[in-house]
Protein backbone atom coordinates (compact mmCIF):
# COMPACT_ATOMS: atom_id res chain seq x y z
CA UNK A 1 0.00 0.00 0.00
CA UNK A 2 1.17 3.53 -0.71
CA UNK A 3 3.00 4.47 -3.86
CA UNK A 4 6.40 6.14 -3.90
CA UNK A 5 8.14 8.02 -6.70
CA UNK A 6 11.51 9.76 -6.86
CA UNK A 7 13.56 11.49 -9.53
CA UNK A 8 17.12 12.76 -9.81
CA UNK A 9 18.51 13.97 -13.12
CA UNK A 10 18.29 16.83 -15.57
CA UNK A 11 14.51 17.24 -16.04
CA UNK A 12 11.99 19.09 -13.93
CA UNK A 13 11.15 16.55 -11.27
CA UNK A 14 7.64 17.92 -10.59
CA UNK A 15 5.79 16.59 -13.68
CA UNK A 16 7.67 13.28 -13.55
CA UNK A 17 6.63 12.76 -9.94
CA UNK A 18 3.05 13.97 -10.31
CA UNK A 19 2.39 11.77 -13.36
CA UNK A 20 4.10 8.87 -11.65
CA UNK A 21 1.95 9.29 -8.54
CA UNK A 22 -1.19 9.27 -10.68
CA UNK A 23 -0.14 5.92 -12.08
CA UNK A 24 0.49 4.60 -8.59
CA UNK A 25 -2.76 5.84 -7.11
CA UNK A 26 -4.06 2.29 -7.36
CA UNK A 27 -1.78 1.59 -4.38
CA UNK A 28 -3.41 4.13 -2.11
CA UNK A 29 -5.20 7.39 -2.55
CA UNK A 30 -6.16 8.95 0.76
CA UNK A 31 -3.43 11.60 0.70
CA UNK A 32 -0.50 12.69 -1.43
CA UNK A 33 2.62 14.81 -1.20
CA UNK A 34 5.79 15.92 -2.92
CA UNK A 35 9.16 17.37 -1.89
CA UNK A 36 11.52 19.02 -4.38
CA UNK A 37 14.96 20.50 -3.94
CA UNK A 38 14.86 23.82 -5.82
CA UNK A 39 18.58 24.61 -5.70
CA UNK A 40 18.57 26.24 -2.28
CA UNK A 41 15.84 24.66 -0.21
CA UNK A 42 13.19 21.96 -0.04
CA UNK A 43 9.78 22.82 -1.48
CA UNK A 44 7.19 20.60 0.15
CA UNK A 45 3.46 20.31 -0.46
CA UNK A 46 1.13 17.64 0.87
CA UNK A 47 -2.56 17.18 1.41
CA UNK A 48 -5.32 14.82 2.33
CA UNK A 49 -6.98 13.67 -0.89
CA UNK A 50 -5.82 12.58 -4.28
CA UNK A 51 -2.97 13.62 -6.54
CA UNK A 52 -5.22 16.21 -8.26
CA UNK A 53 -5.74 17.83 -4.85
CA UNK A 54 -1.99 17.84 -4.37
CA UNK A 55 -1.54 19.58 -7.74
CA UNK A 56 -3.94 22.30 -6.68
CA UNK A 57 -2.13 22.80 -3.39
CA UNK A 58 1.32 22.69 -4.99
CA UNK A 59 0.29 25.41 -7.45
CA UNK A 60 -0.48 27.71 -4.52
CA UNK A 61 2.30 26.75 -2.12
CA UNK A 62 5.51 25.78 -3.91
CA UNK A 63 7.62 26.82 -6.89
CA UNK A 64 7.55 23.33 -8.43
CA UNK A 65 11.18 23.86 -9.43
CA UNK A 66 13.99 21.37 -9.06
CA UNK A 67 15.57 18.33 -10.64
CA UNK A 68 15.54 16.24 -7.46
CA UNK A 69 12.35 15.20 -5.75
CA UNK A 70 10.27 12.52 -4.07
CA UNK A 71 6.50 11.99 -3.93
CA UNK A 72 4.01 9.75 -2.20
CA UNK A 73 0.42 8.59 -2.48
CA UNK A 74 -0.86 7.13 0.76
CA UNK A 75 -3.03 4.38 2.15
CA UNK A 76 -3.10 5.14 5.86
CA UNK A 77 -1.67 2.68 8.37
CA UNK A 78 -0.49 4.81 11.31
CA UNK A 79 -2.46 8.01 11.71
CA UNK A 80 -5.69 9.06 10.02
CA UNK A 81 -5.51 10.49 6.51
CA UNK A 82 -4.95 14.22 6.99
CA UNK A 83 -2.53 16.87 5.75
CA UNK A 84 -0.06 16.42 8.60
CA UNK A 85 0.16 12.64 8.37
CA UNK A 86 0.69 12.79 4.59
CA UNK A 87 4.19 12.12 3.29
CA UNK A 88 6.89 13.35 2.71
CA UNK A 89 8.05 13.93 6.29
CA UNK A 90 10.84 16.22 7.40
CA UNK A 91 13.35 15.42 10.11
CA UNK A 92 13.44 17.88 13.03
CA UNK A 93 16.27 19.95 11.50
CA UNK A 94 14.40 20.18 8.20
CA UNK A 95 17.46 18.82 6.39
CA UNK A 96 16.17 15.34 5.62
CA UNK A 97 12.96 14.44 3.90
CA UNK A 98 11.51 10.94 3.47
CA UNK A 99 8.73 8.93 1.82
CA UNK A 100 7.82 5.46 3.01
CA UNK A 101 5.62 2.57 1.95
CA UNK A 102 5.23 0.01 4.73
CA UNK A 103 5.04 -0.13 8.51
CA UNK A 104 7.64 0.35 11.22
CA UNK A 105 6.33 -1.97 13.90
CA UNK A 106 8.58 -0.84 16.77
CA UNK A 107 8.06 2.86 16.03
CA UNK A 108 6.52 3.54 19.46
CA UNK A 109 9.64 2.55 21.42
CA UNK A 110 11.95 4.35 18.99
CA UNK A 111 9.76 7.45 19.22
CA UNK A 112 9.93 7.39 23.01
CA UNK A 113 13.70 7.23 22.90
CA UNK A 114 13.86 10.11 20.40
CA UNK A 115 11.52 12.22 22.53
CA UNK A 116 13.88 11.63 25.48
CA UNK A 117 16.61 13.03 23.30
CA UNK A 118 14.60 16.18 22.58
CA UNK A 119 12.92 15.31 19.28
CA UNK A 120 9.41 16.55 18.62
CA UNK A 121 6.82 15.10 16.26
CA UNK A 122 4.15 16.78 14.19
CA UNK A 123 2.40 13.69 12.84
CA UNK A 124 1.16 10.36 14.20
CA UNK A 125 3.15 8.42 11.63
CA UNK A 126 5.82 5.78 12.02
CA UNK A 127 7.60 7.40 9.06
CA UNK A 128 8.36 10.63 10.88
CA UNK A 129 9.96 8.51 13.58
CA UNK A 130 12.18 6.80 11.02
CA UNK A 131 13.43 10.02 9.44
CA UNK A 132 14.33 11.40 12.85
CA UNK A 133 16.09 8.19 13.80
CA UNK A 134 18.17 8.56 10.62
CA UNK A 135 18.92 12.16 11.55
CA UNK A 136 19.91 11.26 15.10
CA UNK A 137 22.26 8.49 13.92
CA UNK A 138 23.76 10.74 11.24
CA UNK A 139 24.51 13.39 13.89
CA UNK A 140 25.63 11.03 16.65
CA UNK A 141 27.86 8.84 14.52
CA UNK A 142 29.04 11.59 12.18
CA UNK A 143 28.28 9.41 9.17
CA UNK A 144 26.97 10.09 5.67
CA UNK A 145 23.29 9.77 4.82
CA UNK A 146 23.64 6.30 3.25
CA UNK A 147 25.32 4.88 6.35
CA UNK A 148 22.84 6.58 8.67
CA UNK A 149 19.94 5.05 6.74
CA UNK A 150 21.58 1.65 6.94
CA UNK A 151 22.18 1.89 10.70
CA UNK A 152 18.66 3.16 11.33
CA UNK A 153 17.09 0.36 9.33
CA UNK A 154 19.04 -2.16 11.36
CA UNK A 155 17.27 -0.80 14.43
CA UNK A 156 13.73 -1.01 13.14
CA UNK A 157 11.34 -3.91 12.71
CA UNK A 158 8.79 -3.90 9.95
CA UNK A 159 8.43 -3.42 6.22
CA UNK A 160 9.51 -0.57 4.04
CA UNK A 161 10.32 0.88 0.70
CA UNK A 162 11.80 4.29 1.44
CA UNK A 163 13.42 7.15 -0.41
CA UNK A 164 15.20 9.91 1.48
CA UNK A 165 17.38 12.88 0.60
CA UNK A 166 19.37 15.51 2.43
CA UNK A 167 19.07 19.14 1.31
CA UNK A 168 22.77 19.62 2.11
CA UNK A 169 23.69 16.88 -0.34
CA UNK A 170 21.24 17.32 -3.18
CA UNK A 171 23.05 15.01 -5.56
CA UNK A 172 21.85 11.76 -4.13
CA UNK A 173 18.75 9.85 -3.09
CA UNK A 174 19.05 6.93 -0.70
CA UNK A 175 16.50 4.15 -1.09
CA UNK A 176 15.96 0.86 0.73
CA UNK A 177 13.59 -2.09 0.60
CA UNK A 178 12.22 -4.78 2.86
CA UNK A 179 8.85 -6.33 2.14
CA UNK A 180 7.55 -3.49 -0.06
CA UNK A 181 8.46 -3.21 -3.74
CA UNK A 182 11.00 -0.75 -5.09
CA UNK A 183 12.21 -0.30 -8.66
CA UNK A 184 14.95 2.04 -9.86
CA UNK A 185 14.64 3.26 -13.45
CA UNK A 186 18.04 3.77 -15.07
CA UNK A 187 17.92 6.45 -17.76
CA UNK A 188 20.50 8.53 -19.57
CA UNK A 189 22.15 10.48 -16.78
CA UNK A 190 18.95 10.29 -14.78
CA UNK A 191 17.38 7.91 -12.30
CA UNK A 192 13.84 7.20 -11.21
CA UNK A 193 12.55 5.48 -8.10
CA UNK A 194 9.08 3.96 -7.87
CA UNK A 195 6.92 1.25 -6.34
CA UNK A 196 6.60 -0.25 -9.81
CA UNK A 197 7.94 0.66 -13.23
CA UNK A 198 4.82 2.45 -14.49
CA UNK A 199 5.94 5.98 -13.42
CA UNK A 200 9.06 5.89 -15.56
CA UNK A 201 8.17 3.66 -18.47
CA UNK A 202 8.12 6.51 -21.04
CA UNK A 203 11.65 7.52 -20.00
CA UNK A 204 13.48 4.21 -19.77
CA UNK A 205 13.04 0.48 -20.23
CA UNK A 206 15.89 -0.34 -17.88
CA UNK A 207 15.17 -1.07 -14.26
CA UNK A 208 16.83 -2.45 -11.18
CA UNK A 209 14.47 -4.24 -8.77
CA UNK A 210 15.93 -4.12 -5.30
CA UNK A 211 15.74 -7.35 -3.32
CA UNK A 212 14.60 -7.42 0.29
CA UNK A 213 17.22 -6.10 2.71
CA UNK A 214 18.96 -4.12 0.01
CA UNK A 215 19.54 -0.39 -0.18
CA UNK A 216 20.90 1.84 -2.91
CA UNK A 217 22.63 5.17 -3.10
CA UNK A 218 21.61 6.85 -6.32
CA UNK A 219 24.07 9.51 -7.39
CA UNK A 220 23.10 12.21 -9.87
CA UNK A 221 24.72 11.74 -13.26
CA UNK A 222 26.81 8.89 -11.89
CA UNK A 223 25.62 5.50 -10.74
CA UNK A 224 23.57 3.34 -8.42
CA UNK A 225 25.47 1.65 -5.61
CA UNK A 226 23.57 -1.26 -4.12
CA UNK A 227 24.45 -2.91 -0.84
CA UNK A 228 22.99 -5.17 1.80
CA UNK A 229 21.35 -3.42 4.74
CA UNK A 230 22.47 -6.04 7.25
CA UNK A 231 26.16 -5.75 6.36
CA UNK A 232 28.26 -3.65 4.03
CA UNK A 233 28.38 -6.22 1.25
CA UNK A 234 28.14 -4.54 -2.16
CA UNK A 235 25.73 -6.09 -4.63
CA UNK A 236 26.21 -5.77 -8.38
CA UNK A 237 22.91 -4.30 -9.60
CA UNK A 238 21.14 -6.36 -12.26
CA UNK A 239 19.59 -4.08 -14.87
CA UNK A 240 16.53 -5.69 -16.32
CA UNK A 241 14.92 -4.75 -19.64
CA UNK A 242 11.20 -4.14 -19.18
CA UNK A 243 8.48 -5.42 -21.51
CA UNK A 244 5.94 -2.82 -20.37
CA UNK A 245 4.72 -0.07 -22.71
CA UNK A 246 2.87 3.17 -22.15
CA UNK A 247 -0.39 2.05 -23.85
CA UNK A 248 -0.74 -0.76 -21.34
CA UNK A 249 -0.95 1.67 -18.47
CA UNK A 250 -3.34 4.18 -20.05
CA UNK A 251 -7.12 4.00 -20.33
CA UNK A 252 -7.12 3.72 -24.12
CA UNK A 253 -10.44 5.49 -24.64
CA UNK A 254 -12.36 3.70 -21.88
CA UNK A 255 -13.98 5.70 -19.09
CA UNK A 256 -12.37 3.55 -16.44
CA UNK A 257 -9.47 1.15 -16.13
CA UNK A 258 -11.87 -1.46 -14.82
CA UNK A 259 -13.93 -1.37 -18.01
CA UNK A 260 -10.79 -1.46 -20.15
CA UNK A 261 -9.56 -4.46 -18.19
CA UNK A 262 -12.91 -6.26 -18.48
CA UNK A 263 -12.74 -5.75 -22.26
CA UNK A 264 -9.12 -6.83 -22.44
CA UNK A 265 -10.01 -10.32 -21.24
CA UNK A 266 -10.32 -11.99 -24.66
CA UNK A 267 -6.84 -10.83 -25.60
CA UNK A 268 -5.12 -11.35 -22.25
CA UNK A 269 -6.53 -14.86 -21.85
CA UNK A 270 -4.92 -15.55 -25.22
CA UNK A 271 -1.68 -14.02 -23.95
CA UNK A 272 -1.89 -16.32 -20.94
CA UNK A 273 -1.98 -19.48 -23.00
CA UNK A 274 0.03 -18.25 -26.02
CA UNK A 275 2.95 -20.59 -26.69
CA UNK A 276 1.87 -22.75 -23.75
CA UNK A 277 -1.25 -24.38 -25.13
CA UNK A 278 -1.00 -26.06 -28.54
CA UNK A 279 -4.45 -27.58 -28.91
CA UNK A 280 -3.88 -29.21 -32.31
CA UNK A 281 -0.84 -31.04 -31.05
CA UNK A 282 -2.34 -31.88 -27.67
CA UNK A 283 0.44 -30.01 -25.87
CA UNK A 284 0.46 -27.94 -22.72
CA UNK A 285 3.90 -26.67 -21.84
CA UNK A 286 4.43 -24.40 -18.86
CA UNK A 287 8.07 -23.47 -18.44
CA UNK A 288 7.99 -23.23 -14.66
CA UNK A 289 6.09 -26.48 -14.25
CA UNK A 290 7.82 -29.09 -16.41
CA UNK A 291 10.68 -29.82 -14.06
CA UNK A 292 8.39 -30.02 -11.03
CA UNK A 293 5.63 -32.23 -12.40
CA UNK A 294 6.76 -35.18 -10.20
CA UNK A 295 6.35 -32.99 -7.12
CA UNK A 296 2.73 -32.28 -8.06
CA UNK A 297 1.94 -35.80 -9.18
CA UNK A 298 3.37 -37.35 -6.01
CA UNK A 299 1.99 -34.72 -3.65
CA UNK A 300 -0.28 -35.82 -0.80
CA UNK A 301 -2.32 -32.73 -1.49
CA UNK A 302 -2.20 -29.28 -2.96
CA UNK A 303 -2.79 -26.35 -0.64
CA UNK A 304 -3.78 -23.13 -2.36
CA UNK A 305 -3.15 -19.90 -0.46
CA UNK A 306 -4.43 -16.53 -1.62
CA UNK A 307 -6.61 -13.56 -0.69
CA UNK A 308 -9.73 -11.92 -2.13
CA UNK A 309 -10.34 -12.48 -5.80
CA UNK A 310 -7.23 -14.65 -6.08
CA UNK A 311 -8.70 -16.85 -3.34
CA UNK A 312 -11.84 -17.20 -5.45
CA UNK A 313 -9.68 -18.33 -8.38
CA UNK A 314 -8.17 -20.85 -5.95
CA UNK A 315 -11.64 -22.17 -5.12
CA UNK A 316 -12.39 -22.67 -8.80
CA UNK A 317 -9.06 -24.51 -9.07
CA UNK A 318 -10.07 -26.84 -6.23
CA UNK A 319 -12.96 -28.09 -8.35
CA UNK A 320 -10.81 -28.38 -11.47
CA UNK A 321 -7.82 -30.14 -9.85
CA UNK A 322 -9.91 -32.63 -7.93
CA UNK A 323 -12.18 -33.33 -10.87
CA UNK A 324 -9.56 -33.67 -13.60
CA UNK A 325 -6.28 -34.56 -11.86
CA UNK A 326 -7.72 -36.32 -8.79
CA UNK A 327 -5.33 -34.59 -6.40
CA UNK A 328 -6.82 -33.50 -3.05
CA UNK A 329 -6.90 -29.72 -2.75
CA UNK A 330 -7.39 -27.37 0.18
CA UNK A 331 -7.93 -23.68 -0.37
CA UNK A 332 -6.92 -21.36 2.44
CA UNK A 333 -7.18 -17.66 3.12
CA UNK A 334 -3.49 -16.83 3.37
CA UNK A 335 -4.16 -14.66 6.42
CA UNK A 336 -5.74 -17.56 8.34
CA UNK A 337 -3.36 -20.24 7.15
CA UNK A 338 -0.30 -18.62 8.61
CA UNK A 339 -1.77 -18.10 12.05
CA UNK A 340 -3.36 -21.45 12.72
CA UNK A 341 -0.31 -23.67 13.00
CA UNK A 342 -1.24 -25.64 9.89
CA UNK A 343 -0.03 -29.16 9.25
CA UNK A 344 2.26 -28.96 6.23
CA UNK A 345 4.79 -31.56 5.17
CA UNK A 346 7.38 -32.03 2.47
CA UNK A 347 4.80 -34.05 0.58
CA UNK A 348 2.56 -31.01 0.17
CA UNK A 349 2.62 -28.66 -2.77
CA UNK A 350 1.52 -25.11 -2.00
CA UNK A 351 0.22 -22.90 -4.80
CA UNK A 352 0.22 -19.19 -4.00
CA UNK A 353 -1.98 -17.05 -6.23
CA UNK A 354 -1.51 -13.30 -6.35
CA UNK A 355 -2.10 -10.68 -9.01
CA UNK A 356 0.24 -8.13 -7.49
CA UNK A 357 2.71 -10.65 -6.14
CA UNK A 358 3.08 -8.36 -3.12
CA UNK A 359 0.20 -9.32 -0.81
CA UNK A 360 1.69 -9.47 2.69
CA UNK A 361 -0.56 -12.28 3.97
CA UNK A 362 0.15 -14.48 0.96
CA UNK A 363 3.84 -13.79 1.24
CA UNK A 364 3.84 -14.75 4.91
CA UNK A 365 1.96 -17.98 4.10
CA UNK A 366 4.60 -18.81 1.47
CA UNK A 367 7.41 -18.26 3.95
CA UNK A 368 5.71 -20.52 6.47
CA UNK A 369 5.12 -23.27 3.90
CA UNK A 370 8.76 -23.09 2.80
CA UNK A 371 9.96 -23.30 6.39
CA UNK A 372 7.94 -26.48 6.80
CA UNK A 373 9.54 -27.98 3.73
CA UNK A 374 6.70 -27.73 1.20
CA UNK A 375 7.34 -27.00 -2.44
CA UNK A 376 5.78 -23.62 -3.27
CA UNK A 377 4.54 -22.67 -6.72
CA UNK A 378 3.50 -19.10 -7.54
CA UNK A 379 0.89 -17.80 -9.94
CA UNK A 380 1.46 -14.07 -10.23
CA UNK A 381 0.73 -11.36 -12.73
CA UNK A 382 3.37 -8.79 -11.88
CA UNK A 383 6.68 -9.89 -13.31
CA UNK A 384 9.55 -9.71 -10.84
CA UNK A 385 7.19 -9.23 -7.88
CA UNK A 386 8.21 -10.42 -4.43
CA UNK A 387 5.99 -13.52 -4.49
CA UNK A 388 7.27 -14.53 -7.91
CA UNK A 389 10.77 -14.41 -6.47
CA UNK A 390 9.97 -16.03 -3.12
CA UNK A 391 8.36 -19.14 -4.61
CA UNK A 392 10.36 -22.14 -5.84
CA UNK A 393 8.88 -21.87 -9.30
CA UNK A 394 5.74 -20.60 -10.95
CA UNK A 395 3.78 -19.34 -13.91
CA UNK A 396 3.02 -15.76 -14.80
CA UNK A 397 -0.49 -14.95 -15.94
CA UNK A 398 0.66 -12.29 -18.45
CA UNK A 399 -2.53 -10.26 -18.00
CA UNK A 400 -0.64 -6.96 -18.29
CA UNK A 401 -0.94 -4.22 -15.67
CA UNK A 402 -4.23 -4.36 -13.77
CA UNK A 403 -4.84 -0.85 -12.52
CA UNK A 404 -8.52 -0.85 -11.55
CA UNK A 405 -8.56 -1.78 -7.88
CA UNK A 406 -11.33 -4.32 -8.46
CA UNK A 407 -9.66 -7.34 -9.97
CA UNK A 408 -11.15 -8.61 -13.25
CA UNK A 409 -8.70 -9.86 -15.85
CA UNK A 410 -6.42 -11.19 -13.13
CA UNK A 411 -9.19 -13.59 -12.08
CA UNK A 412 -9.84 -15.07 -15.52
CA UNK A 413 -6.15 -15.36 -16.38
CA UNK A 414 -5.40 -17.04 -13.05
CA UNK A 415 -8.13 -19.59 -13.80
CA UNK A 416 -6.66 -20.08 -17.27
CA UNK A 417 -3.24 -20.92 -15.81
CA UNK A 418 -4.74 -23.18 -13.14
CA UNK A 419 -6.79 -25.01 -15.76
CA UNK A 420 -3.69 -25.62 -17.88
CA UNK A 421 -1.82 -26.97 -14.85
CA UNK A 422 -4.71 -29.27 -13.94
CA UNK A 423 -4.98 -30.59 -17.50
CA UNK A 424 -1.26 -31.18 -17.73
CA UNK A 425 -1.24 -33.10 -14.43
CA UNK A 426 -4.35 -35.05 -15.39
CA UNK A 427 -2.65 -36.15 -18.59
CA UNK A 428 0.55 -37.17 -16.82
CA UNK A 429 -1.40 -39.02 -14.11
CA UNK A 430 -3.73 -40.65 -16.63
CA UNK A 431 -6.83 -39.41 -14.85
CA UNK A 432 -8.32 -37.97 -18.03
CA UNK A 433 -9.14 -39.75 -21.26
CA UNK A 434 -7.29 -38.69 -24.38
CA UNK A 435 -10.57 -37.58 -25.96
CA UNK A 436 -11.54 -35.41 -23.02
CA UNK A 437 -8.04 -33.97 -22.80
CA UNK A 438 -8.08 -32.96 -26.47
CA UNK A 439 -11.62 -31.61 -26.12
CA UNK A 440 -10.62 -29.40 -23.15
CA UNK A 441 -7.61 -28.04 -24.99
CA UNK A 442 -9.73 -27.07 -27.97
CA UNK A 443 -12.42 -25.58 -25.73
CA UNK A 444 -9.87 -23.60 -23.74
CA UNK A 445 -8.62 -22.10 -26.98
CA UNK A 446 -12.16 -20.97 -27.73
CA UNK A 447 -12.61 -19.15 -24.42
CA UNK A 448 -11.41 -15.75 -25.74
CA UNK A 449 -14.12 -15.90 -28.44
CA UNK A 450 -16.72 -16.87 -25.83
CA UNK A 451 -15.67 -14.00 -23.57
CA UNK A 452 -15.92 -11.68 -26.58
CA UNK A 453 -19.47 -12.94 -27.15
CA UNK A 454 -20.38 -12.52 -23.46
CA UNK A 455 -19.17 -8.91 -23.62
CA UNK A 456 -21.69 -8.22 -26.39
CA UNK A 457 -24.45 -8.24 -23.75
CA UNK A 458 -22.97 -5.10 -22.21
CA UNK A 459 -25.86 -2.81 -23.26
CA UNK A 460 -28.49 -5.21 -21.92
CA UNK A 461 -26.59 -5.53 -18.67
CA UNK A 462 -26.47 -1.74 -18.38
CA UNK A 463 -30.28 -1.74 -18.62
CA UNK A 464 -30.48 -4.36 -15.85
CA UNK A 465 -28.15 -2.22 -13.74
CA UNK A 466 -30.57 0.73 -14.11
CA UNK A 467 -33.35 -1.36 -12.60
CA UNK A 468 -31.36 -2.57 -9.57
CA UNK A 469 -28.92 0.23 -8.84
CA UNK A 470 -30.85 1.40 -5.78
CA UNK A 471 -31.14 -2.00 -4.13
CA UNK A 472 -29.43 -2.13 -0.76
CA UNK A 473 -28.68 -5.87 -0.71
CA UNK A 474 -27.96 -8.54 -3.31
CA UNK A 475 -27.64 -12.30 -3.10
CA UNK A 476 -25.45 -14.21 -5.55
CA UNK A 477 -25.99 -17.93 -5.98
CA UNK A 478 -24.10 -20.56 -7.91
CA UNK A 479 -23.31 -24.26 -7.67
CA UNK A 480 -20.25 -26.38 -8.30
CA UNK A 481 -17.71 -24.57 -10.43
CA UNK A 482 -19.88 -21.48 -10.27
CA UNK A 483 -20.15 -21.20 -6.51
CA UNK A 484 -16.80 -19.32 -6.39
CA UNK A 485 -18.07 -17.16 -9.27
CA UNK A 486 -21.05 -16.19 -7.09
CA UNK A 487 -18.61 -15.17 -4.34
CA UNK A 488 -16.58 -13.18 -6.82
CA UNK A 489 -19.68 -11.47 -8.28
CA UNK A 490 -20.74 -10.41 -4.78
CA UNK A 491 -17.25 -9.14 -3.96
CA UNK A 492 -17.13 -7.06 -7.17
CA UNK A 493 -20.45 -5.42 -6.33
CA UNK A 494 -19.54 -4.67 -2.70
CA UNK A 495 -16.15 -3.21 -3.39
CA UNK A 496 -17.07 -0.73 -6.10
CA UNK A 497 -20.72 0.15 -5.42
CA UNK A 498 -20.68 -0.29 -1.60
CA UNK A 499 -23.92 -2.28 -1.85
CA UNK A 500 -24.06 -5.18 0.56
CA UNK A 501 -23.89 -8.49 -1.32
CA UNK A 502 -23.37 -12.10 -0.30
CA UNK A 503 -22.45 -15.11 -2.37
CA UNK A 504 -23.71 -18.59 -1.48
CA UNK A 505 -23.80 -22.06 -2.94
CA UNK A 506 -27.34 -22.12 -4.35
CA UNK A 507 -28.34 -25.13 -2.25
CA UNK A 508 -27.26 -23.42 0.98
CA UNK A 509 -29.93 -20.79 0.49
CA UNK A 510 -32.55 -22.86 2.25
CA UNK A 511 -30.32 -23.20 5.30
CA UNK A 512 -30.58 -19.53 6.22
CA UNK A 513 -30.27 -16.84 3.56
CA UNK A 514 -33.74 -17.60 2.20
CA UNK A 515 -35.07 -15.69 5.20
CA UNK A 516 -33.72 -12.52 3.58
CA UNK A 517 -35.74 -12.90 0.43
CA UNK A 518 -38.65 -10.57 -0.22
CA UNK A 519 -39.77 -8.38 -3.11
CA UNK A 520 -36.84 -6.00 -2.51
CA UNK A 521 -34.09 -8.60 -2.81
CA UNK A 522 -32.37 -9.03 -6.18
CA UNK A 523 -30.88 -12.51 -6.48
CA UNK A 524 -28.24 -13.12 -9.13
CA UNK A 525 -28.31 -16.81 -10.00
CA UNK A 526 -25.75 -18.53 -12.18
CA UNK A 527 -28.04 -20.99 -13.91
CA UNK A 528 -26.08 -22.29 -16.86
CA UNK A 529 -26.44 -25.70 -18.47
CA UNK A 530 -24.73 -28.09 -16.11
CA UNK A 531 -25.27 -31.19 -14.02
CA UNK A 532 -26.97 -28.97 -11.45
CA UNK A 533 -29.28 -27.19 -13.86
CA UNK A 534 -32.49 -28.86 -12.62
CA UNK A 535 -31.59 -28.16 -8.99
CA UNK A 536 -30.80 -24.53 -9.70
CA UNK A 537 -34.14 -24.17 -11.49
CA UNK A 538 -35.80 -25.42 -8.29
CA UNK A 539 -33.84 -22.86 -6.26
CA UNK A 540 -35.10 -20.15 -8.62
CA UNK A 541 -38.67 -21.35 -8.08
CA UNK A 542 -38.12 -21.08 -4.33
CA UNK A 543 -36.92 -17.49 -4.68
CA UNK A 544 -39.83 -16.60 -6.96
CA UNK A 545 -42.27 -18.05 -4.47
CA UNK A 546 -40.94 -15.51 -1.97
CA UNK A 547 -41.15 -12.67 -4.49
CA UNK A 548 -37.39 -12.23 -4.90
CA UNK A 549 -36.22 -10.69 -8.17
CA UNK A 550 -34.16 -13.04 -10.33
CA UNK A 551 -31.28 -11.93 -12.52
CA UNK A 552 -29.96 -15.11 -14.11
CA UNK A 553 -26.79 -15.92 -15.98
CA UNK A 554 -27.89 -18.47 -18.57
CA UNK A 555 -26.43 -20.45 -21.43
CA UNK A 556 -27.30 -19.23 -24.93
CA UNK A 557 -30.49 -20.88 -26.09
CA UNK A 558 -31.82 -21.48 -22.56
CA UNK A 559 -35.60 -21.62 -22.27
CA UNK A 560 -36.60 -22.88 -18.80
CA UNK A 561 -34.76 -20.28 -16.70
CA UNK A 562 -35.67 -17.53 -19.13
CA UNK A 563 -39.33 -18.20 -18.40
CA UNK A 564 -38.80 -17.88 -14.67
CA UNK A 565 -36.21 -15.14 -14.34
CA UNK A 566 -36.97 -11.43 -14.34
CA UNK A 567 -33.80 -10.68 -16.32
CA UNK A 568 -31.26 -12.88 -18.07
CA UNK A 569 -27.64 -12.41 -19.10
CA UNK A 570 -26.50 -14.92 -21.72
CA UNK A 571 -23.13 -16.58 -22.05
CA UNK A 572 -21.94 -19.02 -24.75
CA UNK A 573 -21.91 -22.74 -24.13
CA UNK A 574 -18.65 -24.28 -22.92
CA UNK A 575 -17.86 -27.40 -20.85
CA UNK A 576 -18.90 -26.90 -17.24
CA UNK A 577 -15.28 -27.01 -16.02
CA UNK A 578 -14.52 -23.89 -18.05
CA UNK A 579 -17.72 -21.97 -17.34
CA UNK A 580 -16.25 -19.68 -14.61
CA UNK A 581 -14.22 -18.05 -17.37
CA UNK A 582 -17.40 -16.86 -19.07
CA UNK A 583 -20.01 -16.61 -16.31
CA UNK A 584 -17.89 -14.10 -14.43
CA UNK A 585 -18.03 -11.61 -17.34
CA UNK A 586 -21.68 -10.46 -16.96
CA UNK A 587 -21.19 -10.17 -13.19
CA UNK A 588 -18.18 -7.88 -13.68
CA UNK A 589 -20.22 -5.71 -16.08
CA UNK A 590 -23.24 -5.60 -13.77
CA UNK A 591 -21.22 -4.34 -10.82
CA UNK A 592 -19.35 -1.90 -13.06
CA UNK A 593 -22.54 -0.29 -14.40
CA UNK A 594 -24.20 -0.12 -11.00
CA UNK A 595 -21.14 1.61 -9.53
CA UNK A 596 -20.99 4.10 -12.42
CA UNK A 597 -24.70 4.87 -12.05
CA UNK A 598 -24.20 5.47 -8.35
CA UNK A 599 -21.34 7.86 -9.15
CA UNK A 600 -18.82 5.79 -7.25
CA UNK A 601 -15.11 5.94 -7.91
CA UNK A 602 -14.93 2.71 -9.86
CA UNK A 603 -11.16 2.49 -10.22
CA UNK A 604 -10.32 3.64 -6.72
CA UNK A 605 -13.04 2.51 -4.32
CA UNK A 606 -12.93 3.91 -0.82
CA UNK A 607 -10.71 2.26 1.80
CA UNK A 608 -9.13 -0.15 -0.68
CA UNK A 609 -5.74 -0.40 -2.34
CA UNK A 610 -4.55 -2.54 -5.18
CA UNK A 611 -1.64 -4.08 -3.46
CA UNK A 612 -2.15 -5.00 0.18
CA UNK A 613 1.35 -5.02 1.59
CA UNK A 614 0.27 -4.79 5.22
CA UNK A 615 -1.07 -7.68 7.27
C1 LIG B 1 -10.72 -7.73 -5.30
C2 LIG B 1 -9.31 -7.56 -5.12
C3 LIG B 1 -8.67 -8.11 -3.89
C4 LIG B 1 -7.40 -8.87 -4.28
C5 LIG B 1 -6.65 -9.32 -3.01
C6 LIG B 1 -5.43 -10.16 -3.35
O1 LIG B 1 -11.16 -7.17 -6.50
O2 LIG B 1 -8.65 -6.98 -5.94
O3 LIG B 1 -9.54 -8.90 -3.19
O4 LIG B 1 -7.76 -9.96 -5.07
O5 LIG B 1 -6.26 -8.20 -2.28
O6 LIG B 1 -4.54 -9.44 -4.14
P1 LIG B 1 -3.41 -10.17 -4.95
O7 LIG B 1 -4.06 -11.02 -5.98
O8 LIG B 1 -2.62 -9.05 -5.57
O9 LIG B 1 -2.62 -10.98 -3.99
UniProtKB/TrEMBL annotation:
GO molecular-function terms, A-Z: carbohydrate derivative binding; glutamine-fructose-6-phosphate transaminase (isomerizing) activity
Localization per record: Cytoplasm
SUPFAM superfamilies hit by this protein: N-terminal nucleophile aminohydrolases (Ntn hydrolases), SIS domain
Cross-referenced PROSITE patterns: GATASE_TYPE_2 (PS51278), SIS (PS51464)
Record Pfam families: GATase_6, SIS
Residues covered by the SIS domain: 292-431, 464-605
Superkingdom as given in the UniProt entry: Bacteria
Occurrences of domain Glutamine amidotransferase type-2 (ranges): 2-221
Gene Ontology cellular component list: cytosol
GO BP field: amino sugar biosynthetic process; carbohydrate metabolic process; fructose 6-phosphate metabolic process; protein N-linked glycosylation; UDP-N-acetylglucosamine metabolic process
Keyword annotations from UniProtKB, A to Z: Aminotransferase, Cytoplasm, Glutamine amidotransferase, Repeat, Transferase
Catalysed reactions, semicolon-separated: D-fructose 6-phosphate + L-glutamine = D-glucosamine 6-phosphate + L-glutamate
EC number: 2.6.1.16
Primary location class: cytoplasm
Catalytic residues (positions): 2 (nucleophile), 610 (for fru-6p isomerization activity)
Quaternary context: Homodimer.
HAMAP family: GlmS
Function: Catalyzes the first step in hexosamine metabolism, converting fructose-6P into glucosamine-6P using glutamine as a nitrogen source.
Protein name: Glutamine--fructose-6-phosphate aminotransferase [isomerizing]
Organism: Patiriisocius marinistellae
Gene, per the UniProt record: glmS
